[in-house]
Amino acid sequence: MYVLSWSQRQIFAVLAVVGALLAMSVPARADLNIDITQGQANPMPIAITDFTGATDQESYTGRDITKVISADLERSGLFKPIDHRAFIQTSESLQVQPRFADWQVINAQALVQGRTTTQPDGRLRVEFRLWDVFSGQQMRGQAYFTQPENWRRVAHIVADAIYSRITGEDGYFDTRIVYISESGPAIKRVKRLAIMDQDGENHRFLTDGATLVLTPRFSPTAQEITYLSYFRGVPRVYLFNIETGRQELLGDFPGMTFAPRFSPDGNKVVLSMAREGHTDIYEMDLRTRKTKRLTDFPAINTSPAYSPDGTQITFNSDRGGTQQLYIMGADGSNVRRISFGEGRYATPVWSPRGDLIAFTRFHGGKFFIGVMHTDGSGERTLTEGYLVEGPTWAPNGRVLMYFRQSPGDHRGRGESTRLYSIDLTGYNERLVVTPRDASDPAWSSLIP
Amino acid sequence: MEKLAPAPKTTDADKKAKPSKTPPPSTDQDFAKTIAGLTASSSSEYSSEQPLTMSEIDAIRTQIQRCWNFNAGGRNVEKMVARVHVSLAPDGRVVDARLVEDSHWSGDSFYRSMADSALRAVHVCSPIKVPPTKYERWKEVNLNFDPKDLLR
What we know:
The complex is a heterodimer of chains A (448) and B (152).
Chain A: H1 8-24, E1 32-36, E2 44-48, E3 52-53, H2 56-75, E4 79-81, H3 91-94, H4 100-104, E5 110-118, E6 124-132, E7 138-146, H5 151-167, E8 176-183, E9 190-197, E10 204-205, E11 213-218, E12 224-231, E13 234-241, E14 247-249, E15 256-262, E16 268-275, E17 278-285, E18 291-293, E19 301-306, E20 312-317, E21 324-329, E22 336-337, E23 344-350, E24 356-363, E25 366-373, E26 380-385, E27 387-393, E28 399-406, E29 416-423, E30 430-432, E31 437-443
Parallel strand pairs in A: 2-4, 2-5, 3-5
Antiparallel strand pairs in A: 5-6, 6-7, 8-9, 8-31, 9-10, 11-12, 12-13, 13-14, 15-16, 16-17, 17-18, 19-20, 20-21, 21-22, 23-24, 24-25, 25-26, 27-28, 28-29, 29-30
Chain B: E1 2-3, H1 12-15, H2 29-40, H3 54-67, E2 82-88, E3 94-99, H4 109-125, H5 135-138, E4 140-145
Antiparallel strand pairs in B: 2-3, 2-4
């Protein structure tokens, strides 16, 4: 994919728009003042028209791109794409001039139009414009060049641009999920490492199921995965390169190693090692392969995860009698407990925004996925169930994914384990479609 | 990536904030009563010199709140306030809606998102039901969109 720099004229155009917006502001006057302190949390109606093309092939690709954009935005729970059958103005006439009244009348609040063209060198050019239907202002307009087979990625990038402009958040559609695919009976469960786009497309298996794999985690570049695998019955932490398929044992530890996670700069992995009855947290420098012990307390200290700036680590420990959440400096200093609720707390993960920690809680025979501020305040539950576990953040810190096991009958029939996503507000819980049972999801960063 | 300059064929008329043709939101019985009360209170016994009553102001507030579709999960959104100055036609149509203070608009994407949602709310609500004889009292109105209570 190619990135073009702005021309001076384009920069001038942007500056002119900013200037015009500043000029539009007006001073406060002694008019009627009304405070608006309540609102709705409904999805925003948006009209996403088919991207046009001069040839049949370009038009087909354009329509496919539109479908992916619509599905991404709809799945976020923040947008409601309007049925194309309600559209009054055609995509073709839109290319001449949007008739905003036609879009207001069908209750659209934003309008997306686009075009696909094949370049002389065979690349695909995909351009789109996002319009504010009420003001008639163009909110965003961009063009992307790519190889034709990459159309799906461009669609996700366009969806991210629209989402980002309207919500203020970074997007998360151009991302992947790695997870554990499960099949077979409970006593002989086959677990394979699998990877897919965040919308379930481009699914593939990375391991053959011969050895058990658990807890996969992406590197910050989304090119490598660290995970736990059993080799000759001993759990060990491995590194896997997605491009080359190469698998490598991480470190020569004297005990069982598990719960690995990359540092935000990708240079270190933090993990747990069990030895002589207790478990401690270690970091390993991936360049020097040197290890450093970060906790030294006769208890089970595990599930470490870095803060997004890499200066702190959150983990769970039973050092206080029950399993609770803790934070320490990345060098192991200044350990402090942050969770004080009833039950057990586990699998803390720091939000990419930095402001929240997501966790699994077990209490009263039920599991909960929740979030709290990094000082332990503001704890709230997002979802609960017979078994919900293993939250992972979308790179924008707005959406979480986790897995949910539903019980079967007394023989285990009808039992299922599936991935779900949920908005940070606790709304919009969605099944993530996978070919088989699925657990332990990990969300990548935006694909570089 | 190439930024597309604003489309050249957009006319000045298109760039002006237009009143919405969106019908008012569906009303339940209580809301209908409030609106009915508001219209009744604007009978000839009141002159345009009289201030709006609390219930008339509440009825305007209720309409806008029903139109404000708000991104509740945005970062620090509970600390933001968007002030929108609205000019209304005598029939309650929104003639113009602008941010009173928009210095953060271009620099803070979360504020911009919140402020845009406030502006959309005003247009979606147009025409706003208002007591017709008190036009001088409501033809210019400042709406302070403040979500801090919403997120408690």
